[in-house]
Specification:
By secondary structure, the chain is an alpha/beta fold. The chain folds into 2 domains: 33-215 and 413-427, 3-Layer(aba) Sandwich (Rossmann fold), CATH 3.40.50; 224-411, Glycogen Phosphorylase B (Rossmann fold, 3-Layer(aba) Sandwich), CATH 3.40.50. Helix content is 47%, strand content 15%. The strands form 2 sheets. A 7-stranded parallel β-sheet has the order 3-2-1-4-5-6-7, sandwiched between helices. A 7-stranded parallel β-sheet has the order 10-11-9-8-12-13-14. The longest helix has 27 residues, at 2-28. The radius of gyration is 22 Å and the shape is globular. The mean pLDDT is 90.
């Protein structure tokens, strides 16, 4: 009955959200390519490849989840050498990253919309032996149709914030049935076990594995290209302030700090990587209005002067760029809310600063602060002081990185533990 209501109102909801969704797709570009896959329509080549075997279907919404999916797929293939995966993603940036980094045994596709005729057609074509949902992608039709077809469904690296838990509890009547259909839930923190159990999931199906996102094992970081770019710009020896996955307003704050520190730290160089690359033109204008000379990552051939800032407008390269930073600020944590992932700079040996709004990574942020592995600030002036302190004290930087690395080691082996549970689930 609940799913009947969901499907009844699904077209209405689509019409309501469609204008904003289309605007976002156009801004990010590349939306026309393989658009039919979002409707469960696949070309003959894809259908032929899919028909040759049973697949492990991994669903990851965007860039961060795609990285987790690729890491988990590698861990699974270590246990099952003949493994073949279908990796679906929602965003064009996630699709581009997956296409760029996925090995030949992974078929990359767009996620079908969770409307029952679309999802039923997609499942009939993909014929998954099992389905692995990354972090929070629990869709009612996908889960119900997979259950009816006998395909086990696991939610891995499960994310459930306090806010999401309160929302799900409020609508428990609607969501509990879908959650109970999940065969396995792998959670990041021990306290998450109680949260999922409170939503009606049997405790025997919930396992604390740690976070694959925070798992430092087999971290693939290659700073070769970033170092080459910095050499071309003749800034390779300068201290670098890095703004990672920034949101509107945060780039200007970093730009003003660089300008204000010019007298005391004239060599300081700024690198900014906006969370959404389609914002690059507006970010460039904002930084240039502050008097900064800006180079753009995809337009380096046009640079013929000394620059103060590099703007990254490419996707899938962020983890490699962190490796050249001296200090990193984590975006979406000062002006916007939610926070972005602080793990990649830590894995690269870079000390991190973030603002008060780290809700999406609350457990990790609290642990980093408690163990002296990060600096948390509340205002732009606090941010400036923290940057100066870290730039002037190499021992402080080293201590922060060492403490942060110790926190991440608590999640070491998360991918392998998750893969083992998935393989055991399938063999039952």
């Amino acid at each position: 009955m609940i799913r009947f209501i969901y499907n009844l109102f699904w077209p209405i909801g689509l019409l309501f959200f469609l204008p904003g969704y289309l605007v976002k797709m156009v801004r990010r570009g590349g939306y026309r390519k393989k658009f039919g896959q979002r409707l469960g329509i696949y070309d003959s080549d894809v259908r032929t490849r899919l028909s040759k075997r049973r697949w492990t279907w991994l669903h990851a919404v965007s860039v961060g989840e795609v990285n987790i999916a690729l890491k988990l797929a590698t861990a699974l293939r270590a246990l099952e050498p003949d493994l073949h995966c279908a990796l679906t993603t929602t965003t064009t940036t996630g699709f581009a990253l997956a296409n760029k980094n996925a090995p030949s045994w992974i078929e990359v596709m767009y996620s079908p919309l969770d409307y029952w005729p679309i999802m039923r057609r997609a499942l009939a074509i993909i014929r998954p032996a099992r389905i692995l949902l990354i972090e929070a992608e629990v869709w009612p039709n996908l889960v119900a149709i997979a259950y009816a077809r006998g395909a086990p469904v696991a939610l891995v690296n499960a994310r459930l914030s306090r806010r999401s838990e309160r929302r799900f509890r409020r609508f428990r009547f609607f969501v509990a049935r879908t959650f109970r259909l999940l065969d396995l839930i792998c959670v990041q923190e021990q306290e998450d076990v109680d949260r999922w159990a409170a939503l009606g999931v049997a405790r025997g199906q919930i396992h604390h594995t740690g976070s694959i996102k925070y798992d430092p094992e087999n971290a693939d970081i290659d700073p070769t290209l970033p170092r080459k770019v910095l050499r071309e710009l003749k800034v390779e020896s300068r201290p670098i302030l890095f703004g990672g996955s920034t949101h509107a307003g945060e780039e200007e704050i970093l730009g003003r700090i660089v300008r204000e520190l010019d007298a005391d730290l004239p060599e300081l160089f700024l690198i900014v990587a906006p969370r959404h690359v389609e914002r690059a033109p507006e970010v460039r204008r904002a930084l240039e209005q502050l008097g900064l000379r800006v180079a753009v990552r995809t337009q380096l051939s046009m640079v013929n002067r000394t620059v103060d800032c590099l703007l990254l407008d490419s996707t899938g390269e962020l983890r490699n760029w962190y490796a050249v930073a001296t200090v990193a600020f984590i975006g979406k944590s000062l002006i916007a809310h939610g926070g972005q992932n602080p793990v990649e700079p830590i894995m690269s040996g870079v000390p991190v600063i973030f603002g008060p709004n780290m809700e999406n990574f609350a457990g990790l942020a609290l642990s980093l602060i408690a163990h002296g592995g990060a600096v948390q600030i509340d205002s732009p002036s606090d941010l400036q002081r923290a940057i100066v302190d870290l730039l002037n004290d190499s021992r402080l930087r080293e201590t922060l990185v060492a403490n942060a690395s110790a926190v991440l080691r608590q999640h070491a082996g998360a991918a392998a533990r998750t893969a083992k549970l998935i393989v055991d689930l399938t063999r039952r």
